[in-house]
Queue: 4 jobs
Job 1
Amino acid sequence: MENKKTRGSLIIVTGPSGAGKGTVLGKVLSELDNVYYSISATTRQPRPGETDGVNYFFLTRERFEQMVERDEFLEHAEYVGNCYGTPEKPVNDMLEKGFDVILEIEVQGALMVKAKRPDALLVFITPPSFGILEERLRGRGTEADDVVARRMSKARNECAHVDDYDYIVINDALEDAVRDLEAIIRAQRCRRGKKTVIFD
Amino acid sequence: MENKKTRGSLIIVTGPSGAGKGTVLGKVLSELDNVYYSISATTRQPRPGETDGVNYFFLTRERFEQMVERDEFLEHAEYVGNCYGTPEKPVNDMLEKGFDVILEIEVQGALMVKAKRPDALLVFITPPSFGILEERLRGRGTEADDVVARRMSKARNECAHVDDYDYIVINDALEDAVRDLEAIIRAQRCRRGKKTVIFD
């Protein structure tokens, strides 16, 4: 019954803007071993302090389009004139090494990855209500009314895909949401474990 | 997106004798809310200190057989002349109230319940190796060699059903096994959560 190292799990974390994905994930990543946070590729310019291969893989548009043609992205999209995508190779390499790989991506991309990789776990992080989401978006104080309205409408669409998600984490109290996401990753290791139990 | 109270999950915890099911469960039950530990029924006599409705439901054989005829057990078996069974009604009542219900039962019964209730989670708690299992069984110091041999042979059969289990918890370090089982229950609440999210 020795436990052999096997492939990790692909875990997609998504949810509406303002749900607190980044905060929840930051805490989970600092507390769990053997988890790799996937780095996206983008054609946008690095901002001051951003490092290639740490914050993003910064690519020319030519290189990005080449990768699209070669089907080297798990998902990709264009957003206000810049391209963003999840390169598939580093994800597969880390899974192969036994790491659980986390993709923190937009709902649209998340659904694309899940369709392509049905074995992936799709986790949706949501605020406890649309009212609270709106408060949080306004609370940032940086968003104009029309931006908030657009984000709210987008959030309603994203929540409509609830049946496609494997797990829902309600981010009401941050500490609970962190423990929920940790539990999902830990439980998945026990599920996968059944393939790694070897009877001596 | 309000979280409404819904039906709990049925969680079957099984594994070979000597795997440490009871110890792991004791810790998990003391740390988690909204969990109900199912009480078995038996025709055997109460031992000193045992209370009806706490340790077991103590039944006459006549009453037990009546319940068998009425199909009122999730599973039942005879063991050295006494009958043991899991009454279905209290399980369903507690699930209905939103509790997660834990059945700690033998592998044979666990497989019967899983066949009857495919929505149940079947968790197998196992020692890290057969060698360690044998040490643990001998370590009790109370078992004759032939009893240990019989238990080891039974354990090997039980481990052969590995594909039927939803989750495997390897009880090597107790604290890790406790956290694994807690994670499985907690993650299941997020899975179920998707049916309880109501969009306002």
Note: Chain A has seven helices and eleven strands.
Job 2
Amino acid sequence: MGEFELLARVRERLPPPHGRVRVGSGDDAAVTVPGGATATSVDALVEGVHFSRDGTGLGQAGSKALAAALSDLAAMGAEPGEAYVVLTVPPGLDEDACLEAVDGMVAMAESTGTTLAGGDVTRGPVLSFAVTVVGHASTPERFVRRRGARPGDALVLTGEIGAAAAGLLLPGLDVPALAAPTAAALRRRQLEPVPRLAAGRALAGAGATAMIDVSDGLGADAGHLAAASEVGLRIDAEALPLAEGVAELAAALDRDPLRLAVSGGEDYELLAALPPRGLDLVGLGEAAGVGMTRIGEVVAGAGVEIRLPGGRKLEPAGFDHLG
Amino acid sequence: MGEFELLARVRERLPPPHGRVRVGSGDDAAVTVPGGATATSVDALVEGVHFSRDGTGLGQAGSKALAAALSDLAAMGAEPGEAYVVLTVPPGLDEDACLEAVDGMVAMAESTGTTLAGGDVTRGPVLSFAVTVVGHASTPERFVRRRGARPGDALVLTGEIGAAAAGLLLPGLDVPALAAPTAAALRRRQLEPVPRLAAGRALAGAGATAMIDVSDGLGADAGHLAAASEVGLRIDAEALPLAEGVAELAAALDRDPLRLAVSGGEDYELLAALPPRGLDLVGLGEAAGVGMTRIGEVVAGAGVEIRLPGGRKLEPAGFDHLG
């Protein structure tokens, strides 16, 4: 299998480029006309580090690689635009398997309105994806950064947390309290995350002062937002929206479900700070197609405090994956 | 070594972002204000495929990874803008070694006016770089594509070819005919390529109708330009600018120097088609700081013909590196 032949077969599978893309894959570079300002982020998914081919389908790996990168654009409130991918192909992975991974990316691209505008294929020891995504806005000020949260702002979390961590722990466990469909849903949240692009734009439109995706765990990413904004965050542990089945799984492992949920990564939900006045989370959630929960507030000071009933505090487990 | 700590140390080494970049590394995404239209390309450099740590310094590897990506922007006639890098770190490579690779990239970025605007660090089995570069122009039409060459156009090549291939073959060889400084220059062309950004812009400004970088070898890349433009290319083998020392090395290996030069990749020179009327290659070359040679012409038809004296034809060796 040669580089040129595989790239040609990949190109055949790509949908036609969208409006901003004037030249798609196949020239020395892709040509686009951006929408005033761009937000660009990169992410990598490496076999043996972020996934195993035993547990993850190739299409799922491709889809997740793109979803993880797009989640950063969601956290900026960006309109998704283009994606560029370096696909590293290990010995023994045949062309059809490569195309299965590409098809997973294509499906995620189509469902999010992203154009796969360019890429490269290289040999390497393990399957990996390095993805660059570009999102758009009319002006740079439209993007929501990690800095900008102000004391008094409400803290809002999209969706539910803990599912991806629970889905990672599930394989091989026997948890009778967990119904099969619930267990399957937890696995899907781990293997097939969906970037919260509509929610990100809705929150940006509602005046979010700061935003981040909680890909490294709510505890860690709340800390990043607090540090960048030079504020403190006070989170009400009882308000946290735990995904269905997380409590049962945590019980089976004799672990605290809340601690599991705030420490585990890969939920790809968004944490935003917004002025509380007139905040309509029900309306925002309906517009974005995902629940939104007020989980706390921004305060003067520094750091993240996750409060339990009775004045106790929840300490997230350390989370620092090189990757 | 954790991801966050290493990224923090990387960020300390990055020069401040340039004009177009409003938010550099450290948020969910970098924010830029592009110049009307963008050209975006990706490239990868993988240990064991494209380089070995035995033969290549870490700084050289970092510099070459960025240079190879920027060469694609040169071939579009783009103004270099931003670069985004996924650095994969193998077990046993310590933080200082990672930073040496980063320093190589920083030096290449500085010398070309590129901003390292974002990146990611991940673990993986071998050292690798996946680089996305973004270049700018006022309108999408300003970029020069592979298609567009017209019969009657002159074919122009920047610089000299064969040096990178010769530099790859050199280690371990004893070539008495090759002076030490010449041999060292050949090695540098292999290990420390320089993207022809100024030349690309000069050729675009002079009305280039089509352009490509000859990273896969002049023979192969001329074929790509011919196919994209739906024309034939006629190249005069005797006009080809061979780098100093290529003839001596080829003689020592009993190989044809011209065939070596047109088949070997990684020269990162530019091949452009331009209307011949009023073409001032001396002036263009002086403006761009690199020699420019007229090596042939565009003709009706298809394919690439490299003509030798006496009507014979030179067939490039096959070149298809998956990488």
Note: Chain A has two domains: 3-142, 154-314.
Job 3
Amino acid sequence: MELKGRSLIGSQEGAATRDVFYAWNPRTNEQLQPAFYSASEEEIDQAARLAAEAFATYGRLSGRDRAAFLRSIAEKIEGLREELVERAHQETALPKARLEGETARTCGQLRLFAQVVEEGSWVMARIDRAQPDRKPLPRPDIRSMLRPLGPVVVFGASNFPLAFSVAGGDTASALAAGNPVVVKAHPAHPGTSELVGRAIRQAVMEHNLPDGVFSLLFDRGTQAGISLVKHPLIKAAGFTGSHRAGRALMDAAANRPEPIPFFAEMSSTNPLFILPGALRERTAQIAEGLYGSFTLGAGQFCTKPGMVFLPDGESAHQFTSQLRQLVERADAFDLLTPGIRDAFSASIRARLQHRALRVVAEKPVTTGKAGAIVFETDASSFLKDPELAEEIFGPETLLVRHSDREQILEIARNLGGHLTATIHGTEQDLHDFADLVSILERKAGRLIFNGFPTGVEVCHAMVHGGPYPATSDSRFTSVGTLAIFRFARPVCYQAFPDTALPDELKNENPLGIWRMIDGEWTKEPIAAGHLTAVR
Amino acid sequence: MELKGRSLIGSQEGAATRDVFYAWNPRTNEQLQPAFYSASEEEIDQAARLAAEAFATYGRLSGRDRAAFLRSIAEKIEGLREELVERAHQETALPKARLEGETARTCGQLRLFAQVVEEGSWVMARIDRAQPDRKPLPRPDIRSMLRPLGPVVVFGASNFPLAFSVAGGDTASALAAGNPVVVKAHPAHPGTSELVGRAIRQAVMEHNLPDGVFSLLFDRGTQAGISLVKHPLIKAAGFTGSHRAGRALMDAAANRPEPIPFFAEMSSTNPLFILPGALRERTAQIAEGLYGSFTLGAGQFCTKPGMVFLPDGESAHQFTSQLRQLVERADAFDLLTPGIRDAFSASIRARLQHRALRVVAEKPVTTGKAGAIVFETDASSFLKDPELAEEIFGPETLLVRHSDREQILEIARNLGGHLTATIHGTEQDLHDFADLVSILERKAGRLIFNGFPTGVEVCHAMVHGGPYPATSDSRFTSVGTLAIFRFARPVCYQAFPDTALPDELKNENPLGIWRMIDGEWTKEPIAAGHLTAVR
């Protein structure tokens, strides 16, 4: 497919504006063709209007029809796999095997959401039947279910050109819930974005959906994103990226005349606690796992373990020396963009000058590449400087040695919000540090035992979220089927005739979904007058 | 019980500060004893700190224990019923029968949430079992459930001295979910607030809970509320009141260094559509119902129908004349506070001077009282002036006559967000106006058919919410059991040993709750290795 570099505004193509940019190959340091054109304010407005128009139809489509649409998108992406992986590899320098995996994950996510909306129980249908004889007043029949919010803006993420971009988890969950989507492509992989965008557009057309169901906008900078978030017809947004950009957009969403939900997944250092028994018993194994985790994707994961707490002593020495060997044996990394590379270098330079830090493992590399690096400090120094708990995006981690149990708990209590927190421990450790678990529950969205935080499973129970600043709203997740709840709101129908109710709430339960009837979950229909055979 | 006028800061009493205020009897226009003292900044800070300390314990209490605590609160409130109704009647001028009912509702809400958390399935437990043989990577065991957020601030509402105040729905749902609560009492009914606050405090002590689980702060103005919402240890807030105050607090919550969820139920004019068939067939009946609804509680309900759309013609004349008789026969009303009375008078004066409005029914009253009043206009004038769609708090409503179907739909499409939207229609009307229903679904949280919006049932399916500006976040409700979801967040446990998991997620399902296991809802335990008898 020939790339055109134009935004996709429903079924139309954007104009060749004056604001031009190019993708960049981080491995060869070369510009990639073709030119991409930033969307104009008129195009942004047009995309939002089309989305709002499309919502009237798309928001009322059955779950089965939305499922078919999502599956078509997955098929079309699979049809482009080779081209997609090739272009994404050029634009991101991520290994092809990883990009193959990410394509599969992206399609898997689309199909998982298709399954959720086709089955249909996700709408949390609730029915409280009328009690005409109740005193002092009769109770009317009351039924409620989740309904989509309206047009959703999705921001592509730099570090997942597929799974968190144009047809990533945000788009899949927003479309699944019944919302049109306007994607603001990440300028680091515009070609990958265009390929996926065209696949979605084709699915829109084949399913005879209104063309505003999906638009894709390019922008080299931040203006289009801000304009979209402020647009009165946009009703929610999902973002994965830096804290600075996330907070700016979050504030824009909150300060609109009509504030809207804004889901930002922003920054997380993912504390990892190695408890004494585990460190003794599995020194080398944990060092190996940690190395693999903090350098995975060149350390450019939001779940990268960026601070590691371990007890001082002989095992810690062994652990560190093991880690040193792994780091020194490693290859150099290509980071995603010149901007990320510069930010990483600046952060590392700052840490190298930090008095309380010393380098315990380092891979020297040539200019333009990034080498893995491990710093070390002690618990008291760590507690004194909050900057040491901040995320560095790239292959770096910080070991923090502590001398006793109280220091660990103090560190835990002082943590900000993170996506994950990990504990390595024996059964005995877990018993001795039960209070650590209960502190960490308040600090992170996912707690991991004897594992590593990178690798976020796409499943029903996953929580990829966490208290601020990890995300803008800890009550939601951006990965897994729970992510659909970000883009829906409950609507209640009081005393409606059966024929005027949505299928999900009709007496006979034509969709066969789980519903809460008078407080009890059941799949049974409601017989005329009363309920048959509940439970 | 002798009122002391002091804030309740955990088990301590607030100081007699210099900032003194009194309750007011709207019926007699007299000040009520005793003096109440605004909480100092130190007291506010102390309440937040105690709450944060208490959270470590209270947040981990079992659902059964929290249920027992909530039921104790209900019992203690019932023990004070006479005293409570008497004082609330003095402070609000609301009829005693209404206050009796509100007490029962308040206790009913506490017991309903007790039932929800004792049963336990509300936590949405989800379990995805490990797949050790999965390729290319094994899948770890992943389990998640809802956990409380932390200390919650609740603002008492002027118009519901019990059901939306100290032990109202916000407090009941926040406590049920496991969050300590700091209430900012409404200065219009401080005595009622103190009585209920003491009842809660007594329950805290009897259940041996940390005393920071509950605090009650007085303030004559707005400073305490702002300070609480900005306090770093506060993690969420619930508010019912005016749009101006709600938006100010909402902005304060969003602009904190760590933004927090803020649930404001603010302003709603509750459009009511009378379709042609219904108007013809039930002219007098609908007029009577409308009169009862817009004057209920002297029109001081957030669900008061404040704009009524009906087709021009003979039936509309009959309807108006019927309404006129009802209004003229009515008694005068005492509004809740001098402030509400002044705001009502000012709004009515402005409408009386509005060129496009005319009065069709009015009850003349003496100074200090409020009389029911009905205005009328035509659809074009209504569409021209957005102010006509704004809420007036008090016994007023506006009839809008239209000439055709298209005008109704245009009006509906132009509506802002409301708590409710009501349709009176025959089966035929509903068929002819099916698109009206689908527009209103996007404009309100609750749609009512052939009924009236006042009277919000406390049940599982209720949605008392709606798009902005009706509430700050349309994804949640402040009435009904769904309200508990405002104050909880999901936490995920990856590869945890069974013994370290919360009971809700343990293999054997010791609490017997509904859980989603590998995508299927079941109450079955998980047998060693795999699941027995799902479905």
Note: Chain B touches chain A through 80 residues (CB under 8 Å).
Job 4
Amino acid sequence: MLRYDVTSNDWVIFSPARAMRPEEFSRHGSRMPPVVPADYRCPFCPGNENLTTPEITAIRDGGPANTPGWKVRVVPNKFPALRIEENHRRQEQGRLFRQMGGCGAHEVIIASPDHNTPPALMPIEQLTLVLRVLRDRFNDLMRDTRFQTIVIFKNYGPTAGTSLAHPHCQLIATPVTPRTVRQKLAISQQYFDQTGDCLYCTLLADELADGKRVLAQNSHFVAILPYASHVPFEIWILPRHRQSSFRWIDPSLLHPLAEILKTVLLKLHVGLGNPDFNLTINTAPRGDEDSESFMWFIEILPRLATPAGFELGSGMSINTMLPEEATNFLRSVDACKIAAAACG
Amino acid sequence: MLRYDVTSNDWVIFSPARAMRPEEFSRHGSRMPPVVPADYRCPFCPGNENLTTPEITAIRDGGPANTPGWKVRVVPNKFPALRIEENHRRQEQGRLFRQMGGCGAHEVIIASPDHNTPPALMPIEQLTLVLRVLRDRFNDLMRDTRFQTIVIFKNYGPTAGTSLAHPHCQLIATPVTPRTVRQKLAISQQYFDQTGDCLYCTLLADELADGKRVLAQNSHFVAILPYASHVPFEIWILPRHRQSSFRWIDPSLLHPLAEILKTVLLKLHVGLGNPDFNLTINTAPRGDEDSESFMWFIEILPRLATPAGFELGSGMSINTMLPEEATNFLRSVDACKIAAAACG
């Protein structure tokens, strides 16, 4: 069976013949090194502030910058993909070769002073602080008009692209709007022009009406496993009240967002045995931040399968698990186990 | 620095600050299990033909089907992503939910009776046979008018999506044209409409004129590391005489194609210590097979880096190695070492 993703115009191949049972996915749990060598000084741990580049901002109870006492700390990435100092001039090198300066920003948000607590087990209050810092950094960086898009992302575990165990996430401000972002905007804009409705609002309403893929909800947010999920256990957290850019989220909504995020991460953590995953925030670029036809949302992509030659060559995904089955499995994840895990 | 990929309209971020030296990439050599357990019966080895589904075709010196004596053997994938028996009807499930039957084909091409020889070390004659079988299967499957695109791909090594050591590649016939294929066609079509030239021919001419990223060439094919490579050591093998679909390749060109493919794979094998990689053939879908504005070509993507949250969230790539440097490194790969590897 194939399913059509109306937000990207991709067909996704669902291949139950290749499927594992949900339980089997948990064998793929994170291979994050659990034991830290005795002589290892984690650059993100309190007391080691001198091992990072000087901090950009931090939430702390008084005390000077770059010393312990912080709850969340933001530093420039030591190996930045893009840098504020670079220019963003386009340069032609012949008919077809075009380059531009590596202008942008690349920051690391150290999400907790506690080295060993994965995000799923963090207190909701700590997650709320992290979301607040992300919102503040987003707004601050958008004052630099050279930046078009802010990409917020978390890599969790080696197969997701990090081997740093200390909880952290990152953001990159890019000097161009990525093509795929532009295409998603064009698709939702066209839907809006045709129907007068936001594509994502309609999708959310239909998912709520169908119900089979709704994992969690509170008064402000809904977590679903989308109809045309590209990977097993893909999860979206959507706001009930549409906004085009994450930068506009009302501060009072950060706590309910942290709450549903924690619920979702905990179900993945317990149900699938601490899997590697990537998390990103889909959000509108400069110029479309007040669009009526787009919605920011959080996307969580567990790294349970390896995209191979077919996916790389065709751009199509093969997903071995229907989102309805994945939802059923995550719904059934034992609340007692979750409570026990949450307590330590 | 960012570079623009004129074939996809993507900007690629080049981030030398994050770079390893070329030599360091070879630490990531394939973790393909080198030793086969004594009690393991490889389903792709001669004598074990009964462990696969019955063969579709084979090249053999006489003898009945599904017995030893073959040189290349094609069997249906045991866990197919798509199947010939399924229908391809679209079905609406509400306003936004649309699905279709999993109609298609999924075949495995067993590339050699020899279990232990990676493709880089295969004789050119054997590679030629494999390419011939791929061309024949492509043409045979396209007689089923439900199939729109044939995706040919090879996964080599665990990080590239396979742990089967026995040399093989695969093809999937899809009942829809993937969106990314459609977009590349639209981009090259627009270039043709504007200029009267094929975008890929122009790109190849410019790469040959510039010369800095040309790795190998013979009278029919050129291997380059493209200007806007998305991953380190990405390699394209392009035909000098443009055709839109691989299915039209003249049989006399299969040997020179195998020859340059072997050169390229051997340089990767020796230079980077047997890295995992994916290989695909970019080719036009049904309806565009005679297009004047598209060109089939082979794309090789070594799996030396892990795409993470930024790439998944934005669709942009971060590449830590300029293709000029990668070309220099591969050019310098010692010819004696290569000869020794080829003999041993």
Note: Chain B has a mean pLDDT of 93.
